Amino acid sequence: METQGGYTSQFRRLFKELGRYLRLQKRYWALDAADKLIVLLSTVAIAEVCFVLGAMILFFLTFTAAYWLGGLMGNLVLGFLSIAVALALLLYIFYRKRASWVVAPLARMVVGLFESVARNGNEKDETDEEEETNG
Asked: pLDDT by residue (tens digit) across 100-126?
């Protein structure tokens, strides 16, 4: 009868440990998701700041180039028109290359973010297994 009571207490302890393990796993995944979200949001924020500053620089440089070309051609309207055509050509090239210039790098970044966590998790599992076999 005593061994049955010992098994019962061991099962209770096992279920208690299992519950604790599941709660810790839930907290780990929540922290991991928060970490990934922080990395993604900070990347978006940095990209937005760079985009706004780049747009401002491009705006003033195109005005400067338009006035310079207008003075060179003797007609200010032709200077602005030539810059508008050049920008339209750049927009067309960017639109055609958007998959390789925008989508692919973003996909690589997101996949790399998720793979790094998976790799770190596997390394921890292997380390734990080595400790169990050595200890």
From this structure: 988 898 888 888 877 876 666 655 555
